[in-house]
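Summary for the steering committee. The consortium agreed at its last meeting that each partner would contribute one worked example illustrating the joint modelling workflow. Our contribution is presented below. We chose a case with several input lines so that the handling of multiple components could be demonstrated. No manual editing was applied between input and output; the record is shown as generated.
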Amino acid sequence: MEIFNFGSPDFAPGSVWLVGAGPGDPGLLTLLAASALQQADVIVHDALVSDGILAMANENAVLENVGKRGGKASSRQSDISLRLAELAKQHKKVLRLKGGDPFVFGRGVEEALLLAEAGIPFRVVPGITAGIGGLAYAGIPVTHGAMNQSVTFLTGHDPAGAIPGGLDWDALASCSEVLVLYMAIRHMPAIAARLISAGRPMSEPVAFVKNATMADQQVVETMLGKVADVVDGGRVASPSIVVIGPVVALRNSINWIEKFSLQGKTK
Ligand code: SAH
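What follows is the complete predicted structure of the assembly.
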């Protein structure tokens, strides 16, 4: 295919490519990610990687799903890292395909550290993260020159599943005009309450974007003071990216998918 004439590196047997698949729309894959799908022997992927992207794999590639899906529990992080090393030692071309960007709340770094320690050659291919590209598909830019000079990306839960205790919510509330939260649905009511008690207005706009960039993308807009109603009322579900701040209001003008009846997908 002509688009591969960009000089993609060869995928060496015995190596691992740690690749971001972007938020879901196959059109948002990088050329390196598409090339890896064509070359890989084994594709170890998360549940977040969309079917449309997996359909681009070469027909001989073996797919291994290590995410939660179909009632099966997800594999433990250490098991995934060991599996990657094992496959590489079998001289496979191992594609580790992760949703969004592998180094943004993706645990890709744990895998890279283990591979580095084991002396297994690997390459990192960044991807479009849900907190930027996913929001763009909802018509929400993460910065606007006149609205915010900063944006903070945070996780909505710590490794134990609790609301992140290491974060200084008062400082976040006062210094970051825009907050983008990953994996946050469950703790959003508590997070909203903390931000409000730290001085953020009840009326501050909030958006939840579910299945961003996919054909079934859903956006729920609300305000900080109503987040608990929206979450407790079951109006939002995982996987969603959450954004808090004035930029959410720009969706009224920029929401290009609905304004121009465009699907995220081109086919
Ligand atoms: N590495 C990924 C993030 C993994 S953490 C990235 O860079 O995007 C998983 C969280 O990412 C989900 O709980 C959700 O908050 C967010 N997410 C990933 N893909 C998404 C999508 N298509 N739509 C909405 N949220 C998404």
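Residues 23-24, 48, 98-101, 104-106, 129-130, 134, 182-183, 209-213, 238-241 surround S-adenosyl-L-homocysteine (CB under 6 Å). Residues 201 and 242 are 17 Å apart (CA to CA).
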